[in-house]
């Protein structure tokens, strides 16, 4: 019998937030245990760092421009989805939370669904555990393998204990979910805020609220895994954990930086993955999950996939061709179009901002909350911070970062002559990738590069 598949997702959790990925020790006790029992990937990236398109890419194994869901819209009719293929192989499929973030819902053929409000606004660990137990029991009664996508709504805003939470969720909604099992206050040592953000008091306070919400996400994972254990299915289940994108703050979610797309990928597959294994050199994209899970389930891959199976890596084998990763961005939740493309390798991160023209201003949901207003307020008396804020709003058409020396992408090297060859190489590689995948902005990027060459000649 093929393995059951449990895909657990966090909402807006940074790739370095869990303790097993370098985050504060008390944030993720369950995820840390899962990592110790399975395999972690230090260079795992989502295809696009915003919720619905990221999840659509996972479930179709295709880039957003090839599955139709570039923003918050449905996938194109006829695009194969993972759950339908698994159903044809006898799998029962269920989804907990974020149901409407895979559109059209009916295309996925879910046989068991629990929406956000049935799960305490997607923040009640016990409700996730009970729903998981029910789903697993129904599949067992039918003698079928199963696929369950358990989507926590934490640590998405509003963060636990924040004023935003009081403003956005009425009292009756807040009463449906508990506080995190650990709430981080001013006296807790959680380290500094991520280095791509300024260490302002308001930013630090919001970061602690975010960590509290991340702990409640860990609580959700604990209850889902408890249900797995109690139903006796753990030994026959492939467990995957990841986040759909980075933290919802400036320079992270809805961008193409390292901290935008890096995801804390953990895979535990009894008798396949070796406990405590870390894969820190191979780049993997979450569009690779589709063919990987097909291989695990013994389901033939459909034609037209963009990802490729990670099965050799899960078995502890070497896999060539994993020295780079590409990511994209198209559209914000508010329908703001800010086209970006990114290519990263073990040293450099290159970003092309098609939208950046010196006048247009970037706006996205990551500028909600207290962090961005705090940055703007402090910028009035801090010229360095003022420059960073201006850069965030306008960018430059090209960005290049030495990610070994500058993993938080603070120093743009695109105009540094020392790194000219690295820039040219990244351009060539991105152009080839865009041509290979039929990127709709291929001609635009080719024209951009030709204009650059003409300026050099002049």
Automatic annotation (TrEMBL):
Keywords: Hydrolase. Gene3D superfamilies: Alkaline Phosphatase, subunit A (3.40.720.10). The keyword Hydrolase applies. InterPro entries: Alkaline_phosphatase_core_sf, Sulfatase, Sulfatase_N. Residues 3-299 form the Sulfatase N-terminal domain. Pfam families: Sulfatase. SUPFAM superfamilies: Alkaline phosphatase-like. Belongs to the sulfatase family. This is Sulfatase. It comes from Nonomuraea maheshkhaliensis. The lineage of its organism: Bacteria, Bacillati, Actinomycetota, Actinomycetes, Streptosporangiales.
């Amino acid at each position: 019998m093929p393995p059951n598949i449990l895909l657990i997702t966090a909402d807006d959790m940074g790739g370095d937030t869990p303790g097993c990925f370098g985050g504060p020790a008390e944030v993720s006790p369950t995820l840390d245990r899962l990592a110790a029992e399975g395999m972690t990937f230090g260079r795992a990236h989502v295809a696009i760092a915003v919720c619905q398109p990221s999840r659509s890419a996972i479930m179709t194994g295709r880039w957003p421009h090839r599955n139709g869901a570039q923003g918050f819209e449905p996938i194109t009719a006829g695009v194969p989805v993972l759950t339908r293929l698994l159903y044809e192989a006898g799998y029962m499929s269920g989804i907990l939370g974020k149901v409407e973030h895979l559109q059209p819902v009916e295309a996925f053929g879910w046989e068991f669904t629990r929406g956000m409000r049935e799960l305490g606004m997607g923040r009640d660990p016990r409700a996730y555990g009970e729903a998981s137990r029910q789903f697993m029991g129904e599949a067992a009664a039918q003698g079928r393998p199963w696929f369950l996508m358990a989507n926590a709504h934490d640590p998405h805003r509003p963060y636990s204990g924040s004023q935003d939470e009081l403003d956005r969720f009425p009292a009756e909604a807040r009463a449906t979910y508990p506080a995190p099992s650990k709430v981080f206050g001013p006296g807790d040592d959680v380290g500094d805020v991520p280095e791509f953000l300024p260490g302002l008091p308001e930013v630090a306070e919001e970061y602690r609220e975010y960590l509290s919400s991340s702990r409640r996400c860990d609580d959700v994972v604990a209850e889902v895994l408890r249900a797995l254990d109690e139903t006796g299915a753990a030994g026959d289940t492939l467990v995957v954990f990841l986040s759909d994108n980075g933290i919802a703050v400036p320079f992270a979610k809805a961008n193409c930086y390292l901290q935008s797309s890096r995801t804390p990928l953990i895979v535990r597959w009894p008798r396949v993955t070796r406990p405590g294994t870390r894969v820190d050199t191979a780049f993997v994209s979450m569009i690779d999950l589709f063919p990987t899970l097909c291989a695990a389930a013994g389901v033939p891959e459909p034609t037209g996939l963009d990802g490729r199976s990670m099965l050799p890596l899960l078995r502890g084998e070497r896999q060539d061709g994993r020295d780079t990763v590409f990511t994209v961005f198209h559209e914000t939740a508010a329908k703001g179009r800010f086209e970006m493309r990114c290519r990263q390798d073990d040293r450099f991160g290159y970003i092309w901002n098609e939208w950046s023209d010196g006048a247009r201003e970037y706006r996205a949901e990551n500028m909600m909350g207290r962090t961005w207003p705090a940055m703007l307020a402090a910028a009035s008396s801090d010229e360095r911070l003022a420059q960073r804020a201006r850069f965030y709003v306008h960018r430059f058409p090209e960005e290049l970062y030495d990610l070994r020396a500058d993993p938080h992408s603070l120093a743009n090297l695109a105009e540094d002559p020392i790194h000219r060859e690295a820039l040219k190489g990244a351009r060539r590689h991105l152009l080839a990738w865009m041509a290979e995948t039929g990127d709709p902005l291929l001609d635009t990027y080719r024209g951009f590069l030709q204009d650059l060459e003409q300026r050099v000649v002049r």
